Amino acid sequence: MNKKTRIRFAPSPTGYLHIGSLRTVLFTYLIAKSEGGTHILRIEDTDRSRFVEGAQESLIEVLNWIGIDFDEGPNMGGKFGPYVQSERKEIYDKYKQELLDKGEAYYCFCTPDRLQKMRENQQAKKLPPRYDRTCRDLSKQEIEERIKNGEKYVIRQKMPKSGEVVVNDELRGEIKFKAEELEDHVLIKSDGMPTYQFAVVIDDHSMEITHVLRGEEWIPSFPKNILLYKAFDWEAPKFIHMPLTLNKSGGKLSKRQGDVSVEDYKSKGYLVEALINFSVLSGWHPKDDNEILDIERLKKEFNYRDMGISPGVFDIEKLDYLNGYYIRQKDIDELTELCKPYLKENLKKTNDIEKQSDEYIKKVVAIEQERLKKLSDIAEITTFFFEDELNYDHEMLAWKKMTSEQAKENLDIIYELLEKIPEENWTNDSIEDSIVTYLKAKELKIGEYLWPMRVALTGKKASPSPFDVAEILGKGESLKRIRKVK
RNA sequence: GGUCCCUUCGUCUAGUGGUUAGGACACCAGGUUUUCAUCCUGGUAACAGGAGUUCGAUUCUCCUAGGGAUCACCA
Question: Which helix (H) or strand (E) holds A344?
Answer without folding.
Answer: helix A332-347
